[in-house]
Amino acid sequence: MNVLAGVQYMALPVIVVGEYRFGITQARNAADYNRWLERLINESRMLDITNHTTHHYAAIRLDLRRIGKPIPMNDVWIAALCKEHGLPLLSRDRHFDAVPGIQRFDW
Fold first, then answer.
1. Continuous segment of H or E residues that includes residue 10
2. Architecture of the domain whose range is 49-107
3. What is the Cα–Cα distance from 30 to 95, expressed in whole angstroms?
4. pLDDT tens across 68-83, in order?
């Protein structure tokens, strides 16, 4: 099953771009990965962090603290952007399942 079938557009959190760039700096085929990333960026809607995002970030961190399931800080920002824009998340990281109001699709 292709989870991207029928998707109108891809949204890419700026945090994810930073994580990709960090990984690419350490890759053997950095030039190829940089070309892939630039294509992905050009084909996606970039989600930037705004003041509105910070409200979602704070609420998510508080919810996760209350249930005793913290997740990495960058992932809280990613979840906050998904929540802010009402978008599902494509990730293999199951810890996103603990975030209320986020729908995660595995790939």
1. strand 10-13
2. 3-Layer(aba) Sandwich (3.40)
3. 29
4. 999 999 999 999 999 9
Q: Are 104 and 97 in contact (CB under 8 A)?
A: yes
Query: SS3 for 90?
Result: strand
DSSP string of 12-76, one letter each residue: EEHHHHHHHHHHHHT-TTHHHHHHHHHHHHHHEEEE---HHHHHHHHHHHHHHHHHT----HHHH
Map residue 11 onto helix, strand or coil. strand
- pTM score of the predicted model: 0.89
Report whether 64 contacts 84 (CB < 8 A): no
Question: Contact, 47 vs 13, CB < 8 A?
Answer: yes
Least Cα distance to 25 among 14, 33, 15 occurs for: 33
Enumerate the domain spans of the chain: 10-47, 49-107
